[in-house]
Amino acid sequence: MVFNVNDQHLKIKKEFPRKVREIRHVWIPMRDGCKLAARIWLPEDAESQPVPGLLEYIPYRKNDFTALRDSIRHRYFAGHGYASVRVDMRGSGDSEGILYDEYLPQEQEDAEDVLTWMAAQPWCTGSIGMFGKSWGGFNSLQVAARQHPNLKAIITLCSTDDRYADDVHYMGGNVLASDMQWWASTMLVYNARPADPEVVGDKWREMWLDRLDKTPPFIEEWLSHQRRDDYWKQGSVCEDYDSIKIPVFAVGGWADGYTNAIFRLLENLKGPKLGLVGPWSHEYPEVATPGPNIGFLQEALRWWDKWLKGIETDIMEEAQLRVWVQDALPPSVNYQSREGYFAALESWPSEQTITESLYLQQGTLNKHVTSSKLQRVESEQVHGLHSGVWCPFGQAGDLPSDQRLELPFSHAYVGEELQEPLEILGFPIAKLRVASDQPLAMVAVRLSDRAPSGETTLISWGMLNLTHHASHEFPETLVPGHFYDVDVQLNAIGYRLPAGHQIEVAVSPNYWPHAWPSPEEVTLTLDEAACRIELPLRTARLAEDDAISFEAPETAAVLDREIVRPEKRKRMISFDPVTDTWILRDYSDEGARLLPDSGLEYGSENTNVFSIKKGDPLSAQTTSTWSLHIGRGDWQTRVESCSKMTCDEEHYFVYNQLSAFEGDTQVFSREWKKEIKRDHT
């Protein structure tokens, strides 16, 4: 995860309507006596002329690892008349306590205590908004559902309403091999970083050793809940959409892993709501790639001014959903920008869309059933290696390669050349009648755009653990040879195919490394007479003079920093013919930065390796290693970790090792080993 700021294309504002005062450290007391560390930006005269508050509440360290990104937004909001508060969650950064897991009730209770504290400050009017990307977007929704009286509106970016359906743990009931162990290893090493002695004083070492000793590897809990049980329902606001009564602005991008939730939120929330989807990765729209970038902070101000200051901006006169429809481009693992346009939909679901079905017929896509063939689809364990990163952060190499590389490992159906452009907007759904020769199996479906040159760009994809076809909460072992009617929902997408291109649909019982493979090699049989892809097509066309536009992106100036070591990324796929093993190696040197205002230097390196042997699903293995350092002068610390996940027919095996160093002296080392029974996965 790279927390970097590219300010080359931004309009940097240094003068604001209100002069800004920054309070670099404040303690906020919790009801149990624990203290959380906060950084605050607010107008200089806020104590005599109180302002609404804004809260960003995340575990990623306000003083170093997110200091750059924090500086361009919080100061901007403060300069426009808000007290913008950035809080390190319990057990992170300089805050006291232990972070035992994601999205626990304790986390939400702490957030309520922060809101109460903010509302009581002399600089605050008592009206508060929450915002955040990813973790901060999650807890903005979760805290909104608790109906704190001072929380009046939220902006949630790159988050989800359903922790089981759309997060780094599971997808379609499958163990998300590409991300579950990687993210667990990330949080293990993130949680192992020490508090700053200049903030917490001499107790920093005692706090550090306590964190190292008590913070668990999160994967052990995540992998112990392989079905959608109460563990995942807690913190999933889809369990009771009606509990959220305040206005919600949901934002994301097609290159992100969480955009599906925006459509569900718009469909199910009863209160004021807006959705915004661009071409962006897992990042704020003013800095994200692929572009184009927009003036998102100006949009946020229109939202906050409306709901926190009572100013009648025109934000709610916008269409309920503004969504970027991407034009076709040749496949690339890194787009700097995507061509297309913003479409306006007055509501979601939209009357501007219709559903068109294309049937899977002997290698072709037809509007009518022409064949009743039974088609066998064999296992190829390496299918998916060219699928890209599940949740891109905008790094080079994140996006899917040419899907022709995947064709030998799946069964494809190709439509006729389009006679006119076709615009897909919404959730494609593959409706399949499928049988498996094994009691445990999954299916993956890819939807692609094949150009006349043959180049094939991935549009969207989805997958389903077939034992979950009726329920993610109550899976059922398959009867081999029995046909099941299943729906495989693909990720929501906005994409326009030009005339002359072809639609391609590919089916496979494997999608490595996104899906952990079934314990046995699987052969699926498709009853083609009952297999189709349903495409949500947008029928409206936007006149040129009706095009939606945004202001150019602007931010406050980024905090001064020195580049000690530049970032670097390598992503390589290799095959060892001696062992029949395919290896995907993903290396990210996230660089090192020095912050002159505090003297802190920090940096990190991460390597992830995914390996599997042809014909051997039990050979699947994921390995993640991390090295992070942070220090100032004579105070230098480093944490290192190694995490692995393997399996046999009945169990998953997870291994975690963590070491911590003060200078060159090792002060902590521990191993965790856990065997977890497979549960219909």
Automatic annotation (TrEMBL):
<dbReference type="InterPro" id="IPR000383">
    <property type="entry name" value="Xaa-Pro-like_dom"/>
</dbReference>
<protein>
    <submittedName>
        <fullName>Peptidase S15</fullName>
    </submittedName>
</protein>
<feature type="domain" description="Xaa-Pro dipeptidyl-peptidase C-terminal">
    <location>
        <begin position="301"/>
        <end position="556"/>
    </location>
</feature>
<dbReference type="InterPro" id="IPR029058">
    <property type="entry name" value="AB_hydrolase_fold"/>
</dbReference>
<dbReference type="InterPro" id="IPR050585">
    <property type="entry name" value="Xaa-Pro_dipeptidyl-ppase/CocE"/>
</dbReference>
<dbReference type="Pfam" id="PF08530">
    <property type="entry name" value="PepX_C"/>
</dbReference>
<dbReference type="InterPro" id="IPR013736">
    <property type="entry name" value="Xaa-Pro_dipept_C"/>
</dbReference>
<dbReference type="Pfam" id="PF02129">
    <property type="entry name" value="Peptidase_S15"/>
</dbReference>
<dbReference type="InterPro" id="IPR005674">
    <property type="entry name" value="CocE/Ser_esterase"/>
</dbReference>
<keyword id="KW-0378">Hydrolase</keyword>
<dbReference type="GO" id="GO:0008239">
    <property type="term" value="F:dipeptidyl-peptidase activity"/>
</dbReference>
<dbReference type="InterPro" id="IPR008979">
    <property type="entry name" value="Galactose-bd-like_sf"/>
</dbReference>
